[in-house]
Structures are given as C-alpha cells and as structure tokens.
Protein: Endo-1,4-beta-mannosidase
Organism: Brachybacterium fresconis
Amino acid sequence: MSSPASPAPPAPRFGVNYTPRTGWFHSWLDLDEDAVGEDLQAIASLGADHVRIFPLWPLLQPNRTLIRPRGLADVRAVVDAAASVGLDVVVDAIQGHLSSFDFIPSWLATWHRRNMFTDPEVVAATAELVRSLAACVADAPNLLGLTLGNEVNQFSASNHPDPDVTSVAEAEAWTRTLLEAARAGAPAGMHTVANYDAAWFMDDHAFTPDQSARLGDATVIHSWIFDGTGQRYGARSYEVAHRAEYYLELARAFSPAPQRPLWLQEVGAPRSLLTEDEVPWFVASTIENSLSCPELWGVTWWCSHDVSRSLADFPPLEHTLGLFDEHGRIKNAGEAFRDAVAAARETAPPASRGRAIEFPVGADALLGRSAAAPGGSVFEAWMDASRAGERPTVRVVREQAEIVAGDTRTGGAAATRVGS
C-alpha cells in the first residue's frame, strides 16, 4: 500500500508595498479615504493579493504616553478599504525609516535624546504602541499581521549619522519584546521583523541573521541591487538577475526549521542602475528566480506609486520606483509585475535545491558576515555554482558545530566550504 502523498505547499503570495499616490506617507496627516481606495483598486488590478502599509510613528504616538485614537482609526480605515477590493494587509508598526527619511517622534530626539532599543521607558512605550496598533486591527478578516517597522535596525548601524548603540543581546531583547506586544494585541497574526541587509552582511551589526531567521513567524528579507551587486557586476548581469534568489537561500540557511516561511518583503527596480528598457527583464527574472526557492511565502514589490516630483529632497531614484506613476498611470514595471504574477500562478512548486555552499560564521554570526555580501567569497561561490546550473543552496557552519538548514532535502549533496 503506497503512503499518502505530501500535501502541496501553498502557492506564494504576491503583493505591493503601498506608497500613496497623493502626498506620499505624509497623507496620513489628513487621510483621504477616496484616494486610498483608488490606489488600492489599481494595486488589486495587477493581480496582487496583499499590501503592506506604513503609518508614521510620530503621528500615532506624538508623546511617549499618548497614542492617538484617530491615528489608530485611520489605520483601520485603510485596512478595511483594502478588504473592499480583495486585498489582505500587513501593517508596519514602527516608522521608522522610509525612502531615506527617518520618522522618529520628538520625544526621542535632540533635548529628549534616548536610545530607542535600550531605554526601558522607550521600549515599554514602543511596545504599547505595537500592542495597541495590533489590537485595533486584530479582528479584521484581511489582516495578515504586523511587521516591526521598516528597516528600523538601520538606527543601530555603525554607519548611521547618529546611531543608537546597541549590543546583540539588546537588539534581540528589543525584537522579542515588540513581537510579544504584537502577539498580545493580535494573537492570530503572522508577525515579523523587517531588518535591512546590514543584519546579514555587516560584520559589526547588532541585529543578526539568527535574529531575523528565528524571531517572528517568517524570515523577512529586503533585496536591493544597489547594495553593490549592480555596481560591481553590471545592470543586466547574472548576479543582478539572481540577487533575490541568492538572498532567499542565504536566509533559509539560518532557519532553525526546514519549513519556516521566507518572505521577499521588499524588492524593486532602481533606475539609478537599470534603464527603463531593462526594468521588465529585471521584474520578470527576479520573480521567476525567486519562485525556485522552497518555502517562499511571497513577494511584495517596492512600490505601488512613484513619489511625486513636487516633493523635495528625495534621492532621484525614489521618484521612479513605482509600478504606477504619480498620476496613477501604469508603467512598464507594473505591466511586467502583472504578467509575472499571472505566470507564477501557473508555475509548478520548486524542486529541491542542489549543492550547498558552506558559510563559516563565528559565534552568533558576528564574524564573517561580509563573506556573504556581494563580492564576498560565499556570494561568488554561490553565483558560480548557479551559473553552472547546480541550483545551489547555502549551509551555515558554526565555530563549534555545523547547522544544516539550507535544504534538508538535498539527499546528502556535496557541500563546498568557502568564506573566512
């Protein structure tokens, strides 16, 4: 008697990071629900099934002990508007950092300067905001969950102009505290932390790969080719086409559970490196290659709408990243995304990965992370193996013990050790 077949894995989700067409994220100051509805309807027309939204921290919590009911109500209104057009929602809880601008409340700055990650009163107040925000959307049937901010870990980075100096233990304690607050407010949600790639590639960064891969309900990555990939290898290079796929496999290598979901939560087509003619190729190849990664939960594209050129002081590329322009007209990127999503619905589940590229790391992944960055030995070895058709994965090797978590289904495939 044959054993029952394993259930097919769920199909990956496809979504968009929602940047309001009118007023950008400053639109939270005076929410226009009609404009939001139009934007969300346009996103749904691409075949997307979810959006990620970004209420600004200073508007929700302008004082350490004041969480504005109107601010929470506005978030719920956007969640409900998304439901009306068939979109699920992920709410980012701490903004945080967006498109080169920092959004922190005045009670953390200048004369009131405190460390957001370590000051006990600040952490308690931030946790209360996360809990309150989660509670106000917990019963929404289209809520996917909360994400802790947008690359908030950049505030702790050594290259930040005014860093909140933080240890690895303190970074983990902060993350755990806020995730527990999200769970207290919305027990059923998929709650995650959205660290930018310094956590994976910067040797001295307090937020580590282990934290991203073990805390929360999915491992989140933000993959951008302006991290050195496009500059080093060229816009239409093999490395650019497979950047997100590599990053997903690297993230999977740190997972403590073979079937932990992987979420490509941010990826976009920067015109600082790509021409308009190259954008459709990049969109299609990024999504197609990402679909070859087992445990992919979903892809959420950055972003829905271009930042209006009437707004000042943005890096030029921020005015070009949308799937729609600032007037709501679909761009070639939007058409390519729509077509890639439609094609993905017909794609078979991915096969097991091939040879594992070993990645030696120090205790708590504090040493040698830069070997995995573009130009590093792990990155180069993976790309060489991928170019040769080996569909490689990554295997993390600790100082004292080896953890095999890149792909437990390779059937003992050979591994290649690289790195420092």
